[in-house]
Amino acid sequence: MDFRNYNDYEIIDFIKQGNEEALQLMIDKYRYLIAKKIASFNLTEEFDDFFQEGLLVLYRSVLKFDDSRVKTFTRYFEMNLEHHLISAIRKKTRKLKFNIERLPMLYGDAICESRSEYYSEDEIRAVIHVLSELEKRIFDRRFIQNHDVKEIAEIEAIDVKTVYNAIERIRKKIKLHLDT
Q: Using an 8 Å Cβ cutoff, are 113 and 172 in contact?
């Protein structure tokens, strides 16, 4: 059956009836629009992934399309695709932001400010004399014995925030003395 003689509304009806040829024609017809939208959102790095998602949006749009509510299928699909791409960008940005915010928590125990500035245990022990008594105890428990911050707070009978503040002071003092 040659579907090229039919308009979008008729092809959509064939697709809803399960005709795969009609679906393939619809994919062929809208693949350039999908590619154009992906490029307009500067998502060319992951083009294949977003193209596949665009095809899924096309299929869902076909299944949910109601010509009594919307004027044209093309505009309906374009709107759905734009909304999907915007959501994907937001999700990607949120995930990136979450990972960046978690970096200090994930790598906070390594006493460094950049990748190239890792200090040996011997170097750090040499500058411990600049720490207060509390800071020395917290340093030992946190960085040598690998205790959890909450455990340190319980052992020292102090607030968790005080432990975090002491750890930050320790990092600053050690960095200051190792960099000079």
A: no
Supply φ then ψ for residue 17, to 5 degrees.
-85, -5
Q: Which tens digits make up the pLDDT trace of 123-138?
A: 766 777 888 999 989 9
Measured between alpha carbons, how far is 47 from 94 in angstroms, rounded to an integer? 20
CATH annotation of 3-104: 1.10.1740
What are the distances in angstroms from CA 136 to CA 133, 168, 176?
5, 13, 16
Q: Measured between alpha carbons, how far is residue 101 from residues 96, 106, 108, 156, 162 in Å?
A: 9, 9, 12, 28, 21
Q: Return the CATH class of domain 108-179.
A: mainly alpha
pLDDT tens track for 47-79? 899 999 999 999 999 999 988 887 789 999 999
> Per-domain residue ranges for the chain?
3-104, 108-179
pTM (predicted TM-score) = 0.53
- Angle at the Cα of 101 (from 93 to 142), degrees rounded to 5? 160
